[in-house]
Amino acid sequence: MTGGSSMTSGRRPPLRPAEGPPHATFLELFFDLALVFALFQVSRALVHHLDWAGAFQDLVLFVAVWRIWFMTTWVTDRLDQDWWPVQLSVILTLTAGLILAVAIPGAFGKDGMIFAVVNIGIRMGRSLFLAVVLRGHDMQRIGTGGLVWAALSLPAWVAGGLTHGTARGVLWALGVAVDYFALSVNFRIPGRGRGEPHETPVAAEHLAERYRQVFIIALGELIVASALTLSGEGFERDRTTAFLVTITTTVLLWRIYIHRSGQLLSAAFAARLVSPRMARWAGHVHLTIVAGLVVTAVGDELVIVHPSERTPLTWAVVILGGPALFLLGRAGLEYLVFARVSPDRIIGVLVLGGLTPATLHATTLVTDTAAALVLAGIAVADARSAVRRPAEPPSPPAPGSA
Questions:
Q1: Residue 189 pLDDT level (bands cut at 50, 70, 90)
Q2: For range 119-143, the mean pLDDT
Q3: Residues 263-300: tens digit of each pLDDT
Q4: Residue 368 half-sphere exposure, CB side, CA atoms within 13 Å?
Q5: At the N or C end, where does the chain have fewer CB atoms within 10 A?
Q6: Each residue of 201-227: pLDDT tens digit?
Q7: Which domains are seen in the chain, by residue range?
C-alpha cells in the first residue's frame, strides 16, 4: 500500500515503506543542490570577514543551514517520498533554502530580517506539515513539539533581525541554542513524557548514505573553492603549487573519512537497531566533519591567493584548524562505528595545534603543506593498520552510550 492510498483510506500516515529504496532518491539529490550553494555562501562569508567576530557569525549561519538539511533528511528518511505532499514539502524547503543562502552574505547586514524570517518559516512550516500528515501516529509529537520549540526560538530570531552587530549574533546564537536543545530532547514538550521509545526506527542504510553524501558535497565545495580561486588568480608558479597542495589535502581528507568507518557506517547502523539518539549523534559528528571542510575551503583560498605571505594567527587557525576540526569529527565517527577511537586521530589534532606557533613565521604555502603532511601521516598509518590487522567488523556502542 502506498503512502498516498494509506492517507486516502485514513488508516495510517504516509510512512516510508519498509521495502523502500535504501539509496537516496532523485528528490533528495535535487534538494542537496541547495546545500551546495549554501555551503559555498558560508565559506564566502568567512573569507570576507576573517576575524573572531566573523568566525562566530559564520558559525551561527552554518549551524542554521545544517539544521535545515538535517531535518529535511529526517523527513525523507521517515516518510514516503512517492507521496506528492512530501515531494512538495521538500521542494518548498529547497526554494526557501536557496533564498536563505542568497541572504547569507548580508545576514549580518541589510538582509538580516530576510534570513531570520525565512529560517523560522522553514522550521514552522515543516513542523506544521508533520503535525498534520502524522496525525494519529506516535511521531505526530515531532511536529507539534517542533511548533512549540519554534515558537520559543522565534523571538530571538526576529529580535536579532531587528538589531545589528554583536546583539544580532548573540540573539541568533540563542535561537540556534534553543533549536538544538529541542533536537537533543527529540522535540519533547516538557511535562508530556519522553515518547522516544515508541518512535519508528530510522531507515539505517538510507540514513548512512545520506551522511556520506553530505560529506561528498562538502568535499566538492573544497574542490570548487580551490579551482575557482586559481582560475581567478592565474597559473603563477606559487599559486599553482598551492593549488596542488590543496587538492592533495582534499584527497587525503576523503581517504581518511572513507577508511573503514566511512565504508562501514551502514553496517554499523544495521548491526544495532538505530535509535533516534544514535541517528542524531551521527548527525552531530557529520556537522563537525562538514564544518571542518568548510573551514579548510577558506584556508585553501587564502593559500592560493597569498602563497608567499607570512601566516597571520587567524590564517594559521583556519589553515590548521579546518583539518583538526575534521579529525575531531572523524574520531566521533569511528567511535560510532567501532566504539573506540584510533590514537592517530587525536595525535593529529594535537600536532596541528602544536604547529600553530611555528607557522606564524612561515608562509601560508608552508603552513598548508605542514597540514597536508599531518593528514598524509594519518592516511599512511591507516593503510599500514589495514595490512597488519584483519578487517574489523563494526561494533557500535551500546544504546545510551552514544
A1: confident
A2: 87
A3: 777 777 766 656 667 777 888 899 999 999 999 999 99
A4: 34
A5: N
A6: 566 778 888 899 999 999 998 999 999
A7: 22-198 (no CATH), 204-387 (1.20.1410)
> How many whole angstroms separate alpha carbon 44 and alpha carbon 105?
8
For residues 134 and 147, the answer to whether their CB atoms sit within 8 Å is no
Q: Counting every residue, how long is the chain?
A: 402
Count Cβ atoms below 10 Å from residue 151 Cβ, excluding itself. Answer: 13
- What does the block give as the cell for 129? 506539515
Q: Identify residue 106 by its one-letter amino acid code.
A: G
If you ran DSSP here, which 8-state letter would residue 311 be given? -
- Hunting for cell 566573523 — which residue is that? 54
Of 227, 230, 223, 220, nearest to 307 by C-alpha is 230
3-state SS, 148-199, equals HHHHHHHHHHHHHHHCCHHHHHHHHHHHHHHHHHHHHCCCCCCCCCCCHHHC
Per-residue b or e along 18-48, where b marks 16 or more CB atoms closer than 10 Å to that residue's CB = eebeeebbebbeebbebbebbbbbbbbbbbe
pLDDT in tens, 40-87: 999 989 998 888 899 999 999 999 999 999 989 888 888 888 888 889
Distance in angstroms (rounded) separating the CA atoms of residues 6 and 137: 13
Residue with cell 562501514: 264
pTM beyond 0.85: yes
Chain-centre distance of CA 162, in angstroms?
A: 28
Contact predicate 278/336, CB 8 Å: yes
Average pLDDT (100-109) is 94
Indicate if the pLDDT at residue 108 is higher than 90: yes
pLDDT higher than threshold 60 for residue 338: yes
Contact 332, 287 (CB under 8 A): no
- Interatomic CA distance for residues 76 and 71, integer angstroms: 9
